[in-house]
Amino acid sequence: MQKDHGNSAPSTPTSGRVRHRRRSNEVAMVVIIQIFMASELFNLLRRAHEDKRLPGFRILNWYFYFTAMLFVYGRILSHRLVNTVTSDKIFYRLVSRLIKYQMVICYFLYIAGFMWFIITLKKKMYKYQFGQFAWTHMILIVVFTQSAFTVANIFEGIFWFLLPASLIAVNDVAAYFFGFFFGKTPLIKISPKKTWEGFIGASVATMIAAFLLANVFGQFQWLTCPRKDLSTGWLHCDPGPVFKPEFYPLPGWISQWLPWKEIAILPVQWHALCLGLFASIIAPFGGFFASGFKRAFKIKMVMAVFAYIYHQSFVVAQDYTVETILDEILSSLTFEEQKALYTKLGQIVQDRMLGLSQS
């Protein structure tokens, strides 16, 4: 169960978490799927007759959608975008300004859309128009916002996207298997095929799968490395603390039957148990919600939100790292301010080295 570095790209002599890439499109894939989902949901409550009397009203839904996309992805990708364009001074200044005023830009774009909606209101169509307005915001909250967390998970490391998605799949398959062969007691009226036997059996299977899959996925650095800019593709870095194995001695009565005296466990496997518990108990209610909503939503995105919140709360170190401080410097300071900071830091380091040499 130890980490095998032979199955990832060969390392280069560096310090810190160094990344190497070649082209890939996992983030673009999530965004494209997200757009198709929104399109299907926009059409769910449309009425062709009313739409003919409201030319351009359909464009308004997409206007709100792309405004929300600009706001959410702008917040998620701001630092990574700055890191991508630091080599081009003009483009760097332009991007820095856009990021600085991104919130106010999105706010006024939304206000413009709101005014557009008010202007397009027509008599005898108020109920339909306000229904569509509310439905659009429902889609943004339930679908768009949660799928944006999926993108955020990918940038924290594909591991944090792949493991939760795999646990949901395992839970669904196990629930069907145990429910089909052992199911007798109905679980919930809104989904009559769900049974307590399937629910409990799937929970146990998902917890076991979470512990084992975390160890398997944790062996591959291109799955565990975070992305610090918008370059895409395979990643290689020094593994983080949660992906470095810890060794636990086996009890004597067990080790006498096995060829090894200790077992290697990745710390992330303990975190995976929490994800597995959530996928087993809470995430299935996303399916119940889908049943109650006439199965309009066929993907359990609630898991993506929990995975991101859990990762930020319990896995990511809360202290500031060199990379975090550098990201802030590059995104918040002008080039002249960065040069002044560099000079000041140089003086401080020189003074400290002089003091150490004299003592």
From TrEMBL:
<dbReference type="GO" id="GO:0004605">
    <property type="term" value="F:phosphatidate cytidylyltransferase activity"/>
</dbReference>
<comment type="similarity">
    <text>Belongs to the CDS family.</text>
</comment>
<feature type="transmembrane region" description="Helical">
    <location>
        <begin position="270"/>
        <end position="293"/>
    </location>
</feature>
<keyword id="KW-1208">Phospholipid metabolism</keyword>
<dbReference type="GO" id="GO:0005789">
    <property type="term" value="C:endoplasmic reticulum membrane"/>
</dbReference>
<keyword id="KW-0472">Membrane</keyword>
<keyword id="KW-0444">Lipid biosynthesis</keyword>
<feature type="transmembrane region" description="Helical">
    <location>
        <begin position="133"/>
        <end position="152"/>
    </location>
</feature>
<comment type="pathway">
    <text>Lipid metabolism.</text>
</comment>
<feature type="transmembrane region" description="Helical">
    <location>
        <begin position="57"/>
        <end position="78"/>
    </location>
</feature>
<feature type="transmembrane region" description="Helical">
    <location>
        <begin position="195"/>
        <end position="217"/>
    </location>
</feature>
<dbReference type="GO" id="GO:0016024">
    <property type="term" value="P:CDP-diacylglycerol biosynthetic process"/>
</dbReference>
<dbReference type="Pfam" id="PF01148">
    <property type="entry name" value="CTP_transf_1"/>
</dbReference>
<dbReference type="InterPro" id="IPR016720">
    <property type="entry name" value="PC_Trfase_euk"/>
</dbReference>
<protein>
    <recommendedName>
        <fullName>phosphatidate cytidylyltransferase</fullName>
        <ecNumber>2.7.7.41</ecNumber>
    </recommendedName>
</protein>
<keyword id="KW-0548">Nucleotidyltransferase</keyword>
<keyword id="KW-0443">Lipid metabolism</keyword>
<feature type="transmembrane region" description="Helical">
    <location>
        <begin position="158"/>
        <end position="183"/>
    </location>
</feature>
<feature type="transmembrane region" description="Helical">
    <location>
        <begin position="98"/>
        <end position="121"/>
    </location>
</feature>
<keyword id="KW-0812">Transmembrane</keyword>
<keyword id="KW-0808">Transferase</keyword>
<keyword id="KW-0594">Phospholipid biosynthesis</keyword>
<comment type="pathway">
    <text>Phospholipid metabolism; CDP-diacylglycerol biosynthesis; CDP-diacylglycerol from sn-glycerol 3-phosphate: step 3/3.</text>
</comment>
<feature type="transmembrane region" description="Helical">
    <location>
        <begin position="27"/>
        <end position="45"/>
    </location>
</feature>
<feature type="region of interest" description="Disordered">
    <location>
        <begin position="1"/>
        <end position="22"/>
    </location>
</feature>
<keyword id="KW-1133">Transmembrane helix</keyword>
